Amino acid sequence: MTPPVTSATNGPDPLPTEAAAELHARLTFDLDVDLCVIGAGLAGLSVALEAAQLGLSVAVLEGRRVGWAASGATLGSVLPGYGVPIGDLIDRVGVAHAGELWKLSHEGMAIVRARATEEAMPGIALSAGALEVSNVDLGDRLITRLQTLGVDFGSEVEGWQIDRVREVLRTQRYFHAIHFPDAFQLDGRRYIRGLEAMARRAGVRIFEDTPALGIDSSGIRKRIVTPHARLRASDIVLAGNVHLGAASPRLTRTLLPMWRTAVLTAPLGERLAEAIAFPGSIADTHGVDHYRIVGGDRLLWTGPETTFEIPPRRLEGLIRRRIAALYPQLGAVAIERSWSGVIGQTVHGMPQIGELRRGLWVASGFGRQGLAATTIAGRLIARGIVHGDRRWQLFDPFELVWAGGRIGRVVGQGVAIAERRTAIAAGMLARYRERAAERRRLREERLEAANRSVRRFPAERTPTARPAESPDHAVQDEHRADSGGQH
């Protein structure tokens, strides 16, 4: 996944070490609770917090440490929508259904904003706004998308023309953009630690180094087996993403593991502000690049996704080349740190949220979804358990689909490479067309200037001597001179 956001005041914080974060004990005794959540990432903690606030006794089982995987390495972007293009979402479920899903994402954003305050989470480092930029000339498609998002779905959006985009992002690589002024970013690492603290204060019991080895979901009271104890619960939520393993092999097989590398640059000084004058996050419509300024003069930049783990250092050169291609004025950019995290990507691109069978729930598949999706999943499931809220059924069309195993990973890698190359090629073609259009415009201006000069020439040249003429002829010649010398 993508890296944590850093504090704008104190500069980039290193990833917390094992000793830096508060430790939670293993589960070593049998326990009965109302709800058992498997997985202590963003989704699992969101469910646990919401359920505890509604009065349930909650235990969270984490095989390693809280937020150790993708959730602890999030870019911290909070935007409306999901990880699929809005047109694809409408094609699948229709405008009305897609609009209801969009409203849920806005609700998730509001929950995150209410939680992520400096008072509750010191150093959360909020920054406002998000730009979705195009590396091709969108033309009429921009108007159509703005109509859908702004009018049909009621989102706060702005369409930016090319000149405005290039005023704040000083690169010729981008054309139009959609601005989400109500989007925001935060320090992802501080957010998950703050969420963990909120859950503990609400009464959630978190057990680390306690993997779920097996689940018996039959009967009213479900049973969960761990290495050192057994746990019983009325409801279970599977929120372990690609790391569920033996707890739910079926669910694990529906997720395509995707590693995404991120880098944090060394301080770039004033030259960074001269190249990028936008305070929020920037992502292109084809998913090639996603970045923003952190710590005042550094870039937090995510690189390509891979379905097989590649050491982050091997991809640093690729990211450096992307930065240089977009912003050559930055010169040589040094990479201070690089790292990667694995996310779970579903075949249909949407998260898996809902009840698999009575008392067995799922909150998974949040690759490319953002914080709003994990947050609303927690509210929907908790309220579904306690109040019978059925809004989670809006996600029913996005069923569990096998991701293809190892073959799926090979195919997925090929598709990702092809899409990336296609996007880059499309951008090159768009820039070539822009330059060609500019050359045509200049040629036409020069030709028009030459034509104007030719038209003025007869009136400006010195007249040749003529024989003496009669007064009538002189009057006629004076009339011709006043009319521009035309017959």
Automatic annotation (TrEMBL):
Example GO molecular function: oxidoreductase activity
User: This protein's superkingdom?
Assistant: Bacteria
Keyword Glycoprotein tagged: no
- Keywords recorded for this protein, A-Z: Oxidoreductase
Question: What's one Pfam family the UniProt record gives for this protein?
Answer: DAO
Disordered: where is this region? 452-487
- Which EC numbers characterise this protein's activity in its record? 1.-.-.-
Identify the residues that the record assigns to the FAD dependent oxidoreductase domain, covering every copy.
Answer: 34-382
Q: Which EC class is this protein assigned?
A: oxidoreductase
Please state what the protein is called: NAD(P)/FAD-dependent oxidoreductase
